[in-house]
Specification:
Layout lengths: L4 H20 L3 H17 L3 H18 L2 H16 L1 H7 L5 H27 L4 H16 L6 H5 L2 H7 L3 H11 L12 H14 L3 H14 L6 H18 L5 H5 L19 H17 L3 H17 L3 H17 L3 H18 L2 H12 L22 H8 L46 H13 L4 H12 L9 H14 L6 H14 L4 H17 L4 H4 L2 H14 L4 H13 L3 H14 L4 H13 L3 H13 L5 H13 L3 H14 L6 H11 L3 H15 L4 H13 L3 H12 L11 H14 L8 H13 L4 H8 L5 E14 L17 E12 L2 H12 L8 E14 L2 E5 L3 E4 L2
Antiparallel strand pairs: 1-2, 1-3, 2-4, 2-5
Length: about 900
């Protein structure tokens, strides 16, 4: 006889509480067993929600037990159930559509977050699989209207940048997400950010700063959703840093440090938390090396090597194997070093873990001396630090890691190792550098280069050079360097001359002739990319995507230190819509060359397109601080900082634009916007005067900003004068400001108009002008709605209305440039109302203030129901014109 439903529910509730308690105490192996028991019980009795909860427990436990394959398999199965109602009903036949949709919306993001962590640990945080998970997760968040969860997946960017070897951007990511407590209902990410910062600083040898960050992470451990787990991880990391920094035992180093708990955490029994046991073994190996026993350290690490390999835990395996190599190096066993390094390099390339490979290279090259944790730079203190007498001279050649400062290409203040050494690797010469005398046709190449520079803007001259280049037979080229130089010249000239297809056909035999040259393969692939662009109708016949991708991938695997190769590959992936792969290539190119403007701007644009403005600004800011002298880089930084309301930084960026490209239009206009954001009305007015000298007349945009500055100074008379001047300018003539720019200007003007008394005729005129032009800001409607008392039961409706126009439209105050030929337009309104009828009336009433002719309703949609708010119009949407036939 089957147990009653109440008894089944009680059993499942007990298992849930048991699994939660075990996980809270970090008994993850036992928590996995409890979750499996819950899963079996839920499946047996057709209960989907408890089954899904058991999957979440298993995924979290799989991370801690390093049972990664099992975790990934569970996550994939769980997502299939959440995405497919038929699969879900196989487990619970009476499941309704609404219940399934609610579960999918609630749990899918959690499953994807755990899956991303598992795939990152298994395949690498810079691997294809990891990027695919992040892309899918972001898309699912949008599908389920969970845009609030997208930031959760962007937090993985710190791990991506770290794996890619860009420690500075990794720190920027961690510091940006961990500076302040979260808002209501959001995850508190301060502890993982502090832990990550300590780990990155340790890798870079900044042990004093790493120590301070580890102590901060210990203080923040109670804010984590599992405080004991956070404390365990931080304690082990802090002990490792303590040994490396020469402090010895952590308790001794901490002493009675105020505000930091000195009692060690209670570790779970052996076998319950393998991931922390691995970290303890690595810490003990560091202690053994510091005690002069590297052979013992190597044995400690070897015990874990095969275990991680069997479990396909490749990310922790790469770190462990690198430490084994360092221990063998310290023990003088260089035969063991050679035996261990080969598999590490192979797996590092497969995972694209450039950071581990970079540390291995630094160890081999002697750039940084051997240490139990191979650093990317000399340690700042402890037994593996640079000798004191050598620090001053070495420090002059380099600087420590710093994040982008809020003040604009200025390193942020804070604790730092002033004597830190962080050598910047020299950039290998690009293929188009001056030709060596050993090249047989050195004179001809030099002549081609000179003629290319002189032929800019002359297609005929370019074609002549291209004809001569393509006349060189592949069998005449004997060295890969020679082929790379010729291909680089062709890559510069052939697309501009309309000969990209011919150049690609000429380049293919060269790529086959030199299959081991990264530059040759990369430049040939870039010509193939240009050929596809030149002949889009027959692109696949000219150069297949598979062929080009194979060439690009081979070139990047042959040499991971060529920024332009990564840049060209990034442009290729961007153009074919592979944004994740494009980001990975461009980010690597940026890591290798901070000042390549093409790579910097492309990477920043990619981040902007995915709503990652902060990341875009960080890239631009770092490039400027590293010495980039392209005005476009400073200009983009200025524009993005304005959008982020970082006005102090924006002032510096626009001043930099003026230095790099003096006397250009718009520079002082944006400088004035930044000054207004800082309430520096006098400086804004001075900038506007300079802009008017360049612009030639007081345009609408200048008069509106002058009105805003006058309002900020409390000069109402001047505000009225400049508002009147702006109002005299027909919008029909304003073709020099974008629609987005007009929206921003009118929002600023509306705010500035608050200096006028209520009921003032000019305030009424401004409202009428904004509505007629479709430029009324959201805050205008918010203030109107606040006159209505809040209530429940409201729906949010979006109405589309068709507004007919007559002969008077072209001279109407709301007609903007490019709209004079419209015979009608479709506008939209967002409305909060208790019913569709009320919402329709509100939308038509507001539209009636936009033009004298009556509008008609096309359709409407309901986005939310049962809202509690003030009823009324929420926003006025952009318009779609219907031109006269």
């Amino acid at each position: 006889m089957a147990p009653p439903d109440g008894e089944i529910q009680r059993q499942m509730d007990n298992l849930v509480h048991w699994a939660q308690d075990l996980a809270r105490r970090c008994h993850y192996r036992s928590a996995m067993e409890a979750a499996c028991e819950l899963s079996a019980l839920a499946r047996r009795h057709g209960r989907l929600f408890p089954y899904l909860r058991s999957a979440l427990f298993m995924l979290d436990a799989a991370r801690a037990t390093l049972d990664l394959d099992r975790g990934v398999e569970t996550a994939v199965e769980t997502l299939a159930i959440l995405e497919n109602l038929h699969k879900a009903r196989q487990l619970q036949p009476d499941l309704s559509d609404e219940e399934h949709g609610r579960m999918a919306r609630t749990l899918a993001c959690d499953v994807y977050a755990l899956l991303a962590e598992l795939v990152g640990l298994r395949d690498g945080y810079n691997s294809d699989g990891f990027h695919e998970v992040i892309d899918e997760a972001t898309e699912v968040c949008r599908q389920h209207d969970r845009s609030d969860q997208i930031a959760r997946f962007r937090c993985f960017a710190r791990d991506e940048f770290l794996a890619a070897g860009d420690l500075e951007m990794s720190l920027e990511q961690a510091r940006a997400i961990g500076l302040s407590p979260p808002g209501p209902g959001l995850l508190d990410l301060r502890w993982p950010a502090a832990w990550h910062i300590a780990w990155v600083l340790e890798l870079n040898g900044q042990l004093s700063d790493a120590w301070l960050s580890a102590i901060e992470a210990l203080r923040l451990a109670p804010t984590h959703d599992n405080p004991l787990d956070a404390r365990l991880q931080t304690w082990v990391l802090a002990e490792e840093i303590s040994w490396l920094g020469g402090r010895g035992e952590l308790l001794t180093a901490l002493g009675d440090r105020e505000g930091c708990p000195c009692e060690p955490p209670v570790f779970p029994p052996p076998g319950e938390y393998p991931a922390i046991e691995l970290r303890c073994a690595q810490r003990d190996a560091v202690a053994a090396c510091c005690a002069g026993q590297p052979a013992q350290a190597e044995r400690l690490l070897a015990a874990w090597d095969e275990r991680l390999k069997r479990g396909h835990a490749w990310t922790p395996w790469l770190e462990l194997r690198l430490r084994r190599i360092a221990a063998a190096w310290l023990a003088g066993d260089f035969a063991q070093v050679a035996a261990l390094a080969g598999p590490l390099e192979a797996q590092g390339h497969q995972a694209r873990h450039w950071q581990v490979l970079g540390r291995l290279r630094a160890l081999r090259d002697g750039t940084v001396p051997a240490a139990p944790v191979p650093f990317l730079a000399w340690a700042t203190c402890g037994p593996f630090a640079l000798p004191t007498e050598e620090r001053a001279s070495a420090a002059r050649a380099s600087t420590p890691l710093a994040t982008a400062g809020a003040g604009g290409f200025t390193p942020s203040s804070g604790p730092s190792d002033s004597d830190h050494v962080c050598p910047t690797p020299a950039e290998p010469a690009a293929p188009c550098t001056p030709v060596a005398d050993r090249i047989p046709w050195a004179t001809r190449v030099a002549q081609w280069q000179q003629r290319l520079r002189a032929a800019q803007g002359s297609p005929e001259a370019l074609r002549c050079v291209v004809d001569e280049l393509l006349a060189v037979r592949p069998d005449e080229v004997h060295e890969a360097d020679e082929a790379a130089i010729l291909l680089d010249l062709a890559d510069q000239a052939a697309p501009a001359a309309g000969r990209a297809v011919d150049a690609w056909r000429w380049a293919e035999p060269l790529a086959q002739r030199f299959p081991s040259s990264a530059d040759v393969l990369n430049l040939a692939a870039d010509l193939g990319h240009a050929a596809r662009t030149e002949a889009p109708q027959s692109a696949d016949r000219v150069a297949s995507l598979e062929c080009l991708e194979r060439l690009f991938r081979a070139s990047l695997e042959l040499d991971i230190e060529r920024p332009r190769n990564f840049g060209r590959a990034g442009f290729f992936y961007r153009d074919i819509g592979r944004q994740s792969e494009a980001e990975r290539c461009l980010a690597r190119g940026f890591r290798l060359d901070r000042t390549d403007a093409a790579i910097v701007l492309a990477l920043a644009e990619l981040y902007c397109d995915s709503d990652r403005l902060r990341d875009a600004l960080a890239v631009l800011d770092i490039s400027l601080r590293e010495g980039c002298s392209w005005a476009d880089v400073a200009r983009q930084a200025g524009l993005i900082s304005l959008r982020l309301e970082r006005y102090g930084a924006s002032v510096q960026y626009w001043r930099r634009v003026e230095e790099l490209a003096p006397h250009e239009l718009w520079t002082h206009y944006y400088l004035a916007l930044a000054h207004l954001g800082l309430n520096q009305a006098g400086e804004a007015l001075a900038a506007l005067e300079e802009e008017q000298l360049r612009f030639g007349w007081p345009g609408l945009h200048l008069e509106i900003l002058r009105a805003c500055a006058s309002s900020a100074q409390g000069n109402v008379a001047q505000f009225r004068r400049h508002f009147w001047q702006a109002r005299q300018t027909p919008l029909l003539e304003v073709d020099y400001v974008s629609e987005e720019g007009l929206e921003q200007l009118f929002e600023k003007l509306y705010v500035a108009a608050q200096c006028l008394p209520p009921g003032d005729p000019e305030r009424a005129e401004l409202e009428s002008w904004m509505l007629a032009a479709g430029l009324a800001p959201d805050r205008f409607f918010l203030e109107k709605r606040r006159h209505n008392p809040p209530r429940g039961g409201l729906g949010f409706y979006v109405f589309r209305l068709k507004q007919p126009l007559d002969q008077g439209w072209s001279t109407f105050k709301g007609c903007r440039a490019g709209q004079e030929d419209w015979q009608a337009y479709v506008g939209s309104w967002g409305v909060l109302a208790p019913s569709a009828a009320e919402a329709e009336k509100t939308a038509l009433d507001w539209q009636g203030r936009c033009y004298p002719l009556p509008a008609e309703v096309l359709d409407f949609t309901v986005h939310y129901e049962d809202c509690y708010d003030c009823p009324g119009a929420v926003w006025q949407g952009r318009r779609e014109g219907i031109a006269r036939t």
